[in-house]
Amino acid sequence: MSSPVPEPSREAILDFIETERAAGRDAGRREIARAFGLSGGGKIWLKRLLKEIQEDQAVDAPGNGTLVAHPRGALPPVLLSEIKSKDRDGDLVAIPLEWNEADQGVAPRILIERAREFRAKRNAAPAAGVGDQVLLKLTRLKGVDGFAYSGRVLKIMGKGKAQVLGIFRALPDGSGRLIPIDKKAQGREALIPKGRTAEAQDGDLVSVTLRNETRFGPPEAHVRERLGSIKSERAVSLIAIHAHGIPNVFSPATIAEADAARPAGTAGREDWRDLPLITIDPFDAKDHDDAVHAAPDADPDNPGGYVVTVAIADVAAYVRPGSSLDREALERGNSVYFPDRVVPMLPERISNDLCSLRGGEDRPALAVRLVLKSDGSKKTHSFHRILMRSAAKLSYQQAQAAIDGKPDETTAPIRNTILMPLWAAYGIASRARDARQPLDLDLPERKLVLKPDGAVDRVIVPERLAAHKLIEEFMILANVAAAETLEKAGSLLIYRCHDEPSLEKMRALSEVLASIGIKLPKEAALRPVLFNRILAMIKGSENELFLNEVVLRTQAQAEYVAENYGHFGLNLRRYAHFTSPIRRYADLIVHRALITAMRAGDDGLPKTTTLAELREISTRISAAERRAMAAERETTDRLIAHFLADQIGSSFDGRIGGVNRAGLFVKLDGTGADGFIPASTLGADYYRYDEAAHAMIGERSGESWRLGDRVHVRLVEAAPVAGALRFELLSEGRHVTPGRSGNRPARPPISGRARAKPSFGKAGGKKPGKRR
User: Fold this and answer.
1) N or C: which end of the chain has fewer CB within 10 A?
2) Quick one: 672 and 685 in the same domain?
3) Same domain, 529 and 674
4) Alpha helix locations (H) across 56-92?
5) pLDDT in tens, 129-174
6) For range 55-60, the mean pLDDT
7) Per-residue confidence band for 120, with pLDDT thresholds at 50, 70 and 90
């Protein structure tokens, strides 16, 4: 039997299209399949890949069956970019902000359209400068002076990179030097002349403007602003806040609006204060924006069914469209959660007071009543604008302990009447969830426990309880109901969508699986169940955590959009965030849309709202979410680097979590700390990067290091300010026959190597919660 024809790469297909068109020949699906010898399942695969390439704007389909390739690096219509320079005519030039040249090649240049050309228009382009992060509306150009696109500035999203952040180090003569916080800039310090220090003290976090930058010697910098001392780890989150331009001080107008807000009354609301809704949150939560209740359905036509109620704080009652509170909430997009502080989307007067569902206090809410059948499927649902009074405030641990037969004085009186029905309703809801088969990743979530001074005390993996899953499942049900209600009403809304993995990522996953002896089945349509089968196969093996991470990397990034395309990970056709308007602007839009659809007040989504407006809002809040995720991750990295800084020379066990031409990325067991091993330090051999095998392979020795390999390393350098760690290898690599591919090792694959099985915990928590 002949072996199957290997699937060509995306790049190979684009090369073929370009070559054929340059030669004046047609290049359609039929010609591509013939050129690469594809048939049967290969043609199905090709059809899907070409659709994906077309959606990415990498090719055009004129309509005659042929394809025309665009220059590599085609971009979406609206893009977050960074203005890098000016051209010879003085026009601004930008590149995509999220661009990896190692993987994607040279970044396409974007010519910024001049603001004066739009002054007569209603939405004049904001004035931007070199270094600014901007949201651009792109137009494709046909090779104008080497530019692939022109871009109109929709919004300036962050401070210019020309304002570099770093730590000020004082010198005896009154001058100073700047230690940059950017990992990529480590070792490239700047000199700050005497008189240009703005009286910064040694150890201050400062913003500087670079001057007189040359190719030789350090550049000169002038301090623009002192941002606070970095001598305490409690100030580490300041670095991420300022580096990413996260707004963290509310304007006087916003504070005044919040202070002037008064509790909403019963007018226009259903009185549900007698319904014993309860909140279940992390033990250290300061705001409580969702409450739940469940009871057996009394309807004889629904035997074994339950009525589940989810009530969410009515933020729209206080944050009106167009107000200062609203504008600043949109600017922030979401709350940002650091180990030592929270940068909230709304002032505390709103988030921690008026919209916090405190026990025994009247609060306005939007509630959804879900009627579940005995198999967990939803029979009906309805939305209501209510006044409620929480019957109890519980932590996850309290609620779980009560269910497990260890109630305390708070949970004992409500165990049988409130908690047991909730768990029973969750039991039937989980049946429907299991039948739906969403993506079931099991990754431990690090939690940093800090000392009073803000330093890391220890790193833990909190136990994931049934109480966590209960709240998560009920919130998902409420989010689905919100999307369904608004679609039925014909309302505009913002969806939470998650695309299926790209073919390139699936190819990479297939290579990783093949390296440990697992064959990825070829299916015409991707479904989460495919990944669940893979994860079930390696359950309990030493590859379990590693492959959970690889499958996670394979997934697309969820985003907010105004036009629905479904949620792949949850395996849902429609999904919208409804359950946390205190900390996510998308949820506030959905609340307003529901209020308008229900005719429940004049504070809903304005009737003048357009699809174009929601598209722009979706792009902005998706960018804000990515900004928050990066800031949170970097802060955790910096705190852990501080934690490990006094352990230079110590050895650790870990796993290779990434491989590229520069070297190996290693994730340590226990702390989850990430560090780097430069390729030049791997050994006396010359190590070649094998992209297909995700490995570094010695040219002479055949010693190889591959993605997922267990390693023993020594910490040789820690840069806490940058959150960077450097390791050296202490353990030996596997050996392959020189010249053979690294994914066909001479030694057994990972799964067959005799190593101690690591023990991994499970993670949970609702706030900040998983960003589904």
Assistant:
1) N
2) yes
3) no
4) none
5) 777 788 888 887 765 566 778 888 888 876 554 567 888 999 999 9
6) 55
7) very low
The 306-313 sheet, strands edge to edge: 270-271, 378-389, 362-372, 306-313, 290-296, 278-281, 392-395
The whole-angstrom separation of Cα 571 and Cα 569 is: 5
267 and 179 housed in the same domain: no
CATH number, domain at 47?
1.10.10.10
What is the reported pLDDT for 116?
47
Token pair belonging to 547: 């492959």
User: What are the structure tokens assigned to 8, written together?
Assistant: 């060509």
> Same structural domain for residues 450 and 354?
yes
H or E element that contains 450 = strand 447-450
CA distances from 729 to 186, 675, 694, 715, 716 (A): 22, 12, 18, 9, 10
Q: Which residue has the tokens 């594809």?
A: 38
> Is 642 among the domain residues?
no
Confidence band, pLDDT 50/70/90 cuts, at residue 51: confident
Which amino acid does the sequence have at 333?
Answer: G
Are 626 and 517 contained in the same domain? Answer: no
Q: How many CA atoms lie within 13 A of 162 on its CB side?
A: 15
Task: Look at residue 762 and tell me if it is in a domain.
Answer: no
Q: Are 317 and 264 in contact (CB under 8 A)?
A: yes
Q: Three-class SS string for 434-447?
A: HHHCCCCCCCCCCE
Q: Which of 195, 147, 162 is nearest to 84 (CA)?
A: 162
Q: Report how far Cα 330 is from the mean position of its chain's Cα atoms.
A: 18
DSSP letter at 504 equals H
**What DSSP letter does each residue of 262-286 carry, written as one string?**
----STTSEE-TTS--EEEE-TT-S
Both 285 and 380 in one domain: the answer is yes
In whole angstroms, what is the distance from residue 405 CA to residue 635 CA?
39
Structure token pair of residue 545: 């955590």
Q: How far is it, in rounded angstroms, from Cα 514 to Cα 521?
A: 11
Q: Is the pTM of this model over 0.70?
A: yes
The rounded distance, in Å, linking the Cα atoms of 218 and 659 is 31
pLDDT bracket for residue 427 (50, 70, 90): very high
CA–CA separation, 38 and 385 (whole Å): 57
Asked if 753 and 544 count as a contact pair (C-beta separation under 8 A), the reply is: no
pLDDT at residue number 213: 56
By the 8 A CB rule, do 194 and 154 touch? no
Task: Calculate mean pLDDT across residues 318-338.
Answer: 95
pLDDT at site 71: 47
Q: Region 20-49: what's the mean pLDDT?
A: 75
Are 439 and 513 members of one domain? Answer: no
pLDDT tier for residue 481 given thresholds of 50, 70 and 90: very high
Give the angle 188-189-191 at the CA atoms, nearest 5°. 145
Q: Can you give the residue range of the structural domain that contains 710?
A: 647-735
**How many domains does the chain fold into?**
6
